[in-house]
Design a protein that fits this description.
Length: 465
């Protein structure tokens, strides 16, 4: 989400450098949102008799096109971790845009099956980079909405050219940006790191604030240099409290990814076309409505998560999603008149996903682990999420064809409702609590003695939404 980004980069004043950097950090994820959302309006076009391909694309190919980005993204998460550590964040971020540009170029070049699937696989490599390199709180909603609208009102080729322009714009501008100070320090380039930090903060090289922040970065680098992935993984599994926190994180990630929202966003036009309730809006226009609702949910997530707490917001949004999907399943089973109920149910489900189910697990993850564990846990959780989504999207259309949409949405509803019970019984509240307090609750004990607020994890505080 954008709240932390603006606070971090513009806290020294609303300067052009910080605003430009924030814009360039958001742009790759915006491009990723367009790449993922593209399939919803274009999938039905590719399968129709008016297809831009040589012949209508088989539904199984569309399922593979939906699934393969996340399948590739599962491995790409770890590859990008290596790239960031050894070649820097700047090069890694530029590589994500290069992947997006290659994807759109390949789709413009050919509509053959091999090109469509390969292009989506290349997107998957960029997806892994978007999750690792760019901040996890930035959502891709606006990109989804833009491509929904473009897919409704513009032709196939025009939409592709617009999508290609976004990563090319990022590549052209971002090449002039400095490397991150942390990576420059890691390479021993202290003066270059000082210059990059001064540029980012719009200060003079001799400013004492720049020296102070540089010393902080050096201290963090020394603390992180001794941390190894497999050493962290060993402690993660062997320590009882840490492992329980890890297990909870994986479980709520499973609930988040198998709630069905990503399947809805990928196949929204097909779902609305199946509902076919005679609305004045076309299937693509109704899908664009979901994009608007998703954007609204994302914008309200920051205030909701701070006002209501993590556990209540996660539990309520999971419950409401389950009830909405149950109603949607019943509608498809009974085939009730009109499309008001499926549209309302899907909008409510997507809002809950954007406002709670998607952001809250990431927030709780940062609050349940110290900085020594966060990098490793984040990589594993993102790879796990990508694998789940890949399987879900590959199975969605075959299951819908064999069992019916009502059965598929019933499965999604069951996941949400069971997860609600799990959240209520097993997930701790993490808001305004130290890791010691959280782990004490996981052990079923109270923390020994009062904990001074000043001793709370400072890094956790700045990674909240």
């Amino acid at each position: 989400m954008l709240k932390y980004t603006v606070k971090k980069y513009c806290s020294e004043g609303s300067k052009v450098n910080q605003i430009l950097m924030v814009f360039l950090m958001v742009l790759p994820v915006f491009s990723y949102g367009m790449a993922i959302g593209w399939l919803s309006p274009m999938g039905p076009k590719l399968m129709s008799e008016e297809t831009p391909a040589a012949k209508p694309v088989h539904p199984d190919i569309i399922s593979w096109m939906a699934s393969v980005p996340y399948l590739v993204g599962t491995a790409a998460v770890f590859i990008y971790g290596f790239i960031v550590d050894n070649f820097g964040r700047k090069k890694a971020l530029m590589l994500t845009s290069l992947c997006m540009a290659a994807c759109w170029s390949l789709k413009i070049y050919s509509t053959s099956t091999w090109a469509l699937i390969l292009a989506r696989a290349i997107v998957g490599f960029g997806v892994g980079g978007s999750y690792v390199v760019t901040p996890l709180y930035i959502k891709e909603n606006l990109g989804n909405l833009m491509v929904y609208i473009a897919g409704e009102y513009l032709c196939y080729t025009t939409t592709l050219w617009i999508c290609l322009a976004v990563p090319l714009l990022h590549l052209l501008i971002f090449i002039t940006m400095p490397e991150t100070p942390s990576y420059l320090l890691k390479c021993g380039k202290v003066e270059e790191a000082r210059g990059a930090l001064a540029w980012l903060r719009c200060r003079q090289l001799t400013d004492t604030a720049v020296d102070g922040e540089l010393q902080t970065l050096l201290l963090e680098m020394e603390q992180n240099s001794s941390i190894r992935f497999f050493e962290v993984l060993k402690v993660l599994i062997s320590d009882r409290s840490t492992f329980r926190a890890f297990r909870i994180t994986l479980t709520i990630t499973l609930a988040r990814e198998l709630c069905g929202c990503l399947a809805v966003l990928h196949f929204a036009s097909l779902i609305f076309d199946e509902a076919n309730g005679g609305w004045v809006l076309s299937a693509n226009q109704q899908a664009a409505l979901l994009g608007v609702v998703q954007l609204i949910g994302s914008c309200t997530a920051s205030s909701l998560v701070e006002r209501t707490g993590r556990k209540p917001l996660l539990g309520v949004t999971c419950l409401v999603s389950g009830l909405s999907l149950s109603a949607l399943s019943a509608w498809f089973w009974l085939r009730g008149g009109g499309a008001a109920l499926p549209v309302a149910a899907l909008c409510l489900c997507i809002y809950c996903d954007a406002a709670g189910l998607q952001p809250v697990p990431f927030v709780m993850m940062t609050e349940m682990f110290s900085f020594q564990f966060r990098g490793t846990v984040t990589s594993i959780v993102i790879a796990f999420a990508c694998a789940l989504v890949s399987a879900e999207l590959r199975a969605f259309q075959p299951l819908a064809a064999s069992l019916g949409l009502h059965a598929v949405f019933a499965i999604f509803a069951a996941v949400c409702l069971v997860s609600t019970v799990y959240i209520a019984c097993c997930v701790p509240e993490t808001r305004m609590r130290t890791i010691e307090e959280i782990y004490a609750e996981l052990r079923g004990k109270k923390p020994d003695g009062a904990i001074d607020n000043a001793s709370k994890d400072c890094e956790r505080a700045v990674t909240r939404l």
